[in-house]
Amino acid sequence: MERWMLLAATLLALAGGVWGVVSVRHGDRNRWTVLWMIGAFLFQLGFLSLRGQMRGACPLGDWGERLAYLSWSLTLFYILVGPAYRISLLGVFTAPVVVIFQSIALIPGMLHPSPARVLNTTAWGETHSATSVLSYGAFALAAVAGIMFLVLDRQLKEHHLKGGLFKNLPPVRELLVSVERLLWLGLGLLTAGIIAGLLMPHDGLNGHFIAALAVWAGYAILLVMKRVRGLTGRRISSASVVLFVMSLLVFAFV
To answer: What pTM value is reported for the model?
Structure first.
């Protein structure tokens, strides 16, 4: 049942992305994309609720659940901050990421068919898991907004000013402000997750906790450099994309 919910969420996100692409090609500002993504969000929530009941804890026990949780977090932040952008275009950039993550989660073997229940859960442990992965939704959307900036910057340099994509892109300044705010939001959530991890019962620092500290340090350094030395829009956008990809790779190998 839960796999069908995740499949439905994937198809709805795909529909939202395709609908947005069609609108952009015609130079239209389509507001239907956000409705498709809200539908995907609801099915994601249903999937996570069922897996959470099966686990008896926050559903992060296998890579399928982690990718689904990350997709839910990314969709949530898109819905929350979407009105600050041209909604259809942000969906065009966000939906493919959600589709890719959830498609990987649906690969046989990624989701345990009968997940083991988690024993001896604690409030601090659940807070650590939930806020840490939730922070990745903010980092992911910052990366998406960074890609949007890089596309806009390239179009400006190549003088492609009449296409449907350019007409639907938000102003450069607005994108950069959003990237920085999303990075700060993600860093705040990850900080809360790390603090909760320190307060939960543990026998020492494990690989995932050390990886979380490394990711925190990377984003903290980027934001401090932005505030102290100043960074060009291209550099902070590129860094937000690179850091997000590297953080995923770090967690994949610990």
So the answer is: 0.85
Encode pLDDT of 216-251 as tens digits.
999 999 999 998 888 888 899 999 999 999 888 766
CA within 13 Å, CB half, 36:
25
The letter for the amino acid at 134 is: L
Which amino acid is it at 189? L
Query: How confident is the model at residue 10, as a pLDDT?
Result: 95
105-141 pLDDT per residue, tens? 999 989 888 877 877 777 888 888 889 888 999 999 9
Q: What residue type is 132 in one-letter code?
A: S
Give me the residue label for tokens 């910052």.
142
Categorise residue 124: left if φ over 0, alpha if ψ from -120 to 50, beta otherwise: alpha
**CA distances from residue 106 to 91, 92, 184 in whole angstroms, order as listed:** 22, 22, 31
Q: Are 240 and 185 in contact, with CB atoms under 8 Å apart?
A: no
Quote the CA–CA distance of 81 and 84 in Å, as a whole number: 6
Check: CB of residue 236 under 8 Å from CB of residue 179.
yes
What secondary structure, in 3-state letters, does the chain show? CHHHHHHHHHHHHHHHHHHHHHHHHCCCCCCCHHHHHHHHHHHHHHHHHHHHHHHCCCCCCCHHHHHHHHHHHHHHHHHHHHHHCCHHHHHHHHHHHHHHHHHHHCCCCCCCCCCCCCCCCCHHHHHHHHHHHHHHHHHHHHHHHHHHHHHHHHHHHCCCCCCHHHHHCCCHHHHHHHHHHHHHHHHHHHHHHHHHHHHCCCCCCCHHHHHHHHHHHHHHHHHHHHHHCCCCHHHHHHHHHHHHHHHHHHHHCC
Q: How many CA atoms are closer than 13 Å to the CA of 42, on its beta-carbon side? A: 7
